[in-house]
Design brief:
By secondary structure, the protein is mostly helical. It has 20 helices and no strands. Helix content is 75%, strand content 0%. Pfam families: AA_permease_2.
């Protein structure tokens, strides 16, 4: 039995296009379609709003360039969890993984699925009671797909990523070449008071850019990860940066600032209806649904890998079961089922949006630690060759660190009770860590 277990390992079968689709697909969900108004209101003017989307992308790109150096040196399953363990030791690695598998991962899946359920109910004119069953049904179907060989989930990710690009391309082309309004000549200040300032606008875009690092959870399944992982992260973030900036420019070129302010989250739907008629709004909704399904698929592919990696190290309760790999598909089926079951419970009984928001603070704390880790690794490995080196060092990681610190400080200022609660959630993992450590030394 032990020999059989040793022979069953994760398939290192994902190529560049699969990795790239995961980066783009896990970032582009609904944020770019629904945050136009909030970013504009906070920035105060269309020009500053566009700059916020661009700078948010630049900060994210510096983060990607920094993580790419770390990931190329540690091409293992688990991503951020593995990086923290290798740089700072098992204790800090465990806490970063604990936070992701206990709340952040399931809550992110639940919040996307819950919002998708709302869209599906509206799209098919169903009763509101269908929302939860549809949300759970979608994640069950996607989870089932991901219990086959990873190439099936990767292929689905490529298809949905291509599908979500269609409405984005349509918005960009129509906004750039057929817009007859010029919102850049207006100011939100003429309509209402700015709701937070330029810093808050950048913060909103950073959340819309988040998710790119999840591809690192599949480091043990990517072919030649020392080369392909940095390429996928850097190109993927760059493509999202260009897409987000051009979509924002297209909308601002077509719809006046005052109208965007009053439309709120319906800005993009209004754009589609005005540009393409009523059927355009329906098609855009389909595009958003496809976008969110692809985003869900990326999360469901990646988060169970953290559970698997921690269970392989015997750091979780029921580690033997959670580290099980199906001998035919080489997929962590038990870890996937547990993550999806937990997400389904959140959909039924909790507000997953609030739960996922609570962990933003701690996620960015671990981001900062990993960015700082680039400096530590270079000192430890002075003179050693690296598969990938962050360009413009040390400026690039310093920008990434400052960007993450900006998020942390903003979270403390805007939601101190939530920050304290998120720290409590992480702290609960401390006795679990020492309990498992004691059991392993017996």
């Amino acid at each position: 039995m032990q020999d059989a277990k040793q022979e069953t390992t994760l398939n290192r079968s994902l190529g560049f296009w699969s990795a790239l689709a995961l980066v783009v697909g896990t970032v582009i969900g609904s944020g770019i379609f629904f945050k136009q108004s909030s970013v504009l209101d906070s920035a105060g003017s269309p020009g500053m709003a566009l700059l916020a989307w661009f700078l948010g992308g630049v900060i994210t790109l510096t983060a990607g360039l920094t993580i790419a150096e770390v990931g190329a040196q540690m091409p293992h399953t688990g991503g951020l969890y593995v990086y923290m363990e290798e740089i700072y030791g098992k204790f800090w690695g465990f806490l970063s993984g604990w936070m992701q598998v206990v709340v952040y991962g399931p809550a992110i899946i639940a919040s996307i699925a819950a919002y998708l359920g709302i869209l599906l109910v509206g799209f098919f004119n169903l009763d509101g009671s269908w929302q939860a069953p549809l949300s759970i049904g979608v994640i069950v179907l996607i989870g089932f797909l991901n219990m086959f060989e990873n190439r099936w989930g990767a292929a689905f990710q490529i298809v949905t990523t291509l599908g979500k690009l269609l409405p984005i391309i349509a918005i960009i082309i129509f906004g750039l070449f057929f817009g007859d309004q010029n919102a850049f000549s207006h100011s939100v200040a003429a309509v209402s008071q700015s709701s937070g300032g330029f810093g808050v606008a950048i913060l909103a875009t950073l959340f819309a850019y988040d998710g790119w690092i999840l591809v690192a959870n599949l480091g043990g399944e990517i072919k030649n990860p020392q080369k392909l992982l940095p390429q996928a992260i850097i190109l993927g973030i760059s493509l999202v940066l260009i897409a987000y900036t051009l979509v924002s420019y297209g909308i601002l070129h077509f719809i006046p600032a005052e109208t965007i302010h009053h439309l709120g989250q319906q800005t993009t739907v209004y754009f589609a209806n005005s540009a393409f008629g009523t059927i355009g709004g329906r098609l855009l909704n389909i595009g958003i649904i496809v976008s969110m399904v692809g985003c869900l698929n990326g999360k469901i592919m990646t988060f169970p890998r953290i559970v698997y990696a921690m269970a392989e190290r015997r750091q979780l309760p029921f580690s033997k079961q959670l580290s099980y790999l199906n001998r035919k598909s080489h997929e962590p089926i038990v870890a996937t089922v547990c993550i999806l079951a937990y997400a389904s419970i959140m959909i039924l009984f909790f507000n997953p949006d609030r739960l996922s928001d609570l962990c933003i603070f701690t996620v960015y704390c671990f981001y900062v630690a990993t960015f700082v880790g680039v400096f530590l690794l270079r000192r430890r490995q002075k003179g050693s060759a690296r598969p990938f080196s962050t360009p413009w060092f040390p400026i690039t990681p310093l920008v990434a660190i400052l960007g993450a610190l900006f998020v942390i400080v903003s979270e403390i200022g805007s939601d101190l009770p939530g920050v304290l609660l998120s720290l409590l959630i992480v702290a609960i993992g401390i006795p679990v860590y020492y309990w498992k450590r004691q059991k392993m030394t017996r």
